[in-house]
Design brief:
The structure is a single chain. The protein is α/β, with parallel strands linked by helices. Helices cover about 45% and strands about 10% of the residues. The protein has helices at about 1-25, 35-75, 85-105, 110-135, 180-185, 190-195, 205-220, 230-245, 290-295, 335-340, 360-365, 400-410, 445-455, 470-485, 485-490, 505-510, 515-535, 550-560, 595-610, 630-635, 640-645, 650-660, and strands spanning about 225, 255-260, 300-305, 315, 320, 320, 325-330, 350-355, 370, 390-395, 435-440, 455-460, 540-545, 560-570, 585-590. Strands 1-3-2-8-10-9-14-15-13-11-12 form an 11-stranded mixed β-sheet, sandwiched between helices. α2 (about 35-75) packs parallel to α4. The N and C termini lie far apart (about 90 Å). The relative contact order is 0.10.
């Protein structure tokens, strides 16, 4: 009725306007000239006012008609009993929706368009969302149904022809088995491999040493989730039997113990992802990286701590500590691999990085670690954060060990669309005197000077690019990708029991309202960054801080490799009054272009060949006269001892604590 009245009013006013116009015009010839001028002025003012009034009425009418039409469309009923009330209700809804659109930076639509979008979303988009989730998002972790959008870090376009050529392996001679187990535990992989190959020690003996150390130090460092004792002895026994038959599976890994970050699936053992929600999860699948190591004869002794859902070092059993300073927590989710390698609990371990989870723990614990070129190592069977950022890499004692491990685990994984047979030259054959290496302002100058003395051409360098939102690009992409893999986790409210409520829960809630358009704009900005970095990477490699956050984000977005190298130590802050052997480690990073990991490895090996920072041992047993190891109760307030009770060696652990 209201619309009808408004329509009649507009027509009456229009008709009156036309009548007055004609009538006034017919009277003008009968008036004297002076009166005619006055009348003309008055009529002009009246006409102008009438025109504006009439125009406003028509605009109001048209707007009401538009809203009315949207209301009818939205309700799906052309014979609505009270369309005006419907209009008012929908205007209210549009106002509320507009507030939501502000969160999307998209509040530029008028009410009718907002209602149109709401109708389309309800009728078309939401059914598609639900159908897709039903197909691929019922399980958490991104273990299945990978995205077909694949990131390619290549700069040169060079592709491997056939199977990749394997690295050469230096031979050792004159290596003798130490008398003390402690000294054996800190030998590097090549040395341990020589002891096994020359039958100075068996794989089972070596496995016993490292299982003992895992049990001994875990309650101090909180770095182990599961000790895979039964599997380890089975694999070690097989390695010894094969060696007795003259079969050597993989030099130098045959019979060598190691650990895996607990986001990597191993059948028959829990893969907890470090989370209370998934702490009883058993994935009956073999991760690709585990298959590769098993085929080379390596012996898995433990599933090592990951920060909960691969975020930082807080997990359902506590928080992992730094072997060099046990009052300090480790930063980065590959905390277990870093701590266990540093403390001589394993000779090497496999960790992962999306945004700093290899570089930060390695730097904190003073170990050598490689974040390889994106796509070098397959990720099947590994919890996924971001399919275009996740990488697996080794934590080792030496850069040479990193090269051996990388050579074993690299290659095309048929179930990981991002992995490929990347062409890598042999790092043991690189002539470093033919390289030009840049150094940034924050590079450790000892490394620069040592390499210069070894014949490397070193120059000052700055990697320039104009993209100023690098950190924001990585965070936005990582969070959206993570949410796609843990959609069901969030929808079911499991984020409410997450170990660190200031980490993933608020980040993934924000990710829920990232528009697809802006996610793709972030990918385009990433592409721009890659082009600029590629154009300005004018050296063969460069040296700089491995934990600079901007550089961590840039390196991961570009997919470039970096090796973290220990370069020394400094005093801890607020040390005890007298002596303390606790130290803060100093490290640097050697960066290379994508698919040039061999350059970074060769430079790191050259530096370590004339220095011994990487050979130092952390003081977990001998802190100093005024230092003491915190008690079990102090360190393990949040530790779940049931992890060890279930594996049947709680008494042994308590005995080792008393020995400490």
């Amino acid at each position: 009725m209201l619309l009808l009245k408004m329509t009649r009013t507009c027509f009456v006013m229009t008709a009156l306007f036309l009548f007055l116009s004609v009538y006034s015009a017919s009277l003008w010839p009968l008036l004297p000239s002076k009166q005619l001028a006055q009348q003309h002025h008055l009529l002009n003012a009246s006409y102008t006012k009438m025109v504006h009034t009439n125009k406003r009425f028509w605009e109001m009418l048209c707007q009401k008609v538009r809203v009315y039409s949207q209301a009818v469309m939205y309700s799906g009923k052309h014979n609505h009993n009270d369309p005006v009330e419907c209009c008012l209700g929908k205007i209210k809804d549009a106002s509320q929706l507009r507030q939501a659109f502000k969160l999307l930076d998209a509040d530029f639509f008028n009410d009718s368009k907002i209602l149109e979008m709401a109708k389309g979303a309800k009728e078309l988009n939401i059914p598609i969302y639900r159908a897709n989730r039903k197909l691929v998002a019922r399980e958490n972790g991104g273990l299945h149904d990978p995205s077909v959008l694949v990131f390619n870090p290549e700069w040169t376009g060079e592709e491997a022809q056939g199977a990749p050529k394997r690295f050469s392996c230096p031979t050792l001679s004159g290596i003798q088995k130490p008398e003390r187990d402690e000294d054996i535990a800190f030998m590097n992989v090549l040395e341990l491999g020589h002891l096994i190959q020359t039958k100075q020690i068996t794989s089972q003996e070596l496995t016993r040493i490292f299982l003992h150390r895992l049990k001994k130090y875990n309650h101090v460092l909180e770095s182990v989730v599961s000790v895979t004792e039964e599997l380890a002895y089975d694999q070690a026994k097989r390695a010894d039997e094969l060696l007795g038959q003259g079969i050597y599976l993989g030099r130098p890994l045959h019979g060598i113990p190691y650990g895996l970050k607990d986001i990597i699936a191993v059948p028959g053992y829990k893969t907890t992802w470090g989370s209370e929600t998934f702490k009883d999860q058993v994935l009956n699948m073999e991760a690709w990286v585990y298959k590769r190591l098993k085929s080379a004869g390596a012996v898995l002794v433990g599933k090592l701590v990951t920060g909960s859902l691969a975020y930082d070092s807080i997990w359902f059993g506590g928080r992992t500590r730094n072997p060099w300073n046990i009052e300090e927590f480790i930063t980065g989710s590959s905390a277990g691999p870093a701590a266990c390698t540093s403390a001589g609990m394993v000779p090497f371990a496999i960790g992962s990085e999306t945004a700093g989870s290899i570089t930060y723990p390695a730097a904190r614990c003073g170990v050598t670690a490689l974040r390889p070129t994106f796509g070098t190592v397959g990720r099947t069977g590994v919890m996924s954060i971001s399919e275009s950022l996740d990488k697996l890499g080794p934590f080792c004692r030496t850069a040479a060990d990193c090269a051996f491990i990388l050579d074993v685990i690299r290659g095309k994984d048929p179930d990981d669309l991002s992995s490929k047979d990347i062409t890598l030259h042999d790092p043991f054959s690189v002539d470093i005197t033919k390289l030009t290496v840049g150094y940034l302002e924050d590079a450790e100058m000892e490394v620069v000077q040592v390499l210069q003395l070894m014949g490397v051409n070193v120059v000052q360098f700055k990697l320039n690019y104009t993209v100023d939102s690098v950190q924001g690009i990585l965070n936005l992409m990582m969070d959206v990708d993570m949410l796609a893999h843990f959609d069901e986790w969030q929808r079911s409210g499991q984020d409410d029991v997450y170990e660190a409520q200031d980490k993933w829960p608020p980040e993934l809630r924000r990710a829920r309202i990232v528009p697809a358009v802006d996610y793709l704009q972030a990918q385009r900005a990433r592409g721009k960054l890659i082009q600029e970095v590629r154009g300005n990477f004018t050296v063969d490699a460069f040296i700089g801080n491995a934990t600079d956050w901007e550089r961590v984000c840039m390196g991961n977005l570009v997919g470039m490799p970096v090796i973290v190298v220990p370069t020394g130590f400094k005093s801890i802050s607020d040390p005890p009054p007298a002596n303390s052997r606790r130290r803060t480690t100093i490290t640097t990073g050697i960066y290379a272009p994508p698919q040039h990991d061999h350059i970074a490895l060769a430079l790191a090996m050259a530096y370590q060949s004339v220095t011994d920072h990487h050979k130092q041992r952390p003081p977990i047993d001998d802190l100093g006269p005024d230092d003491s190891i915190p008690s079990h109760s102090e360190l393990c307030t949040h530790q779940d001892n049931s992890v060890f009770k279930k594996q049947g060696f709680q008494d042994a652990v308590e005995l080792e604590i008393l020995e400490l």
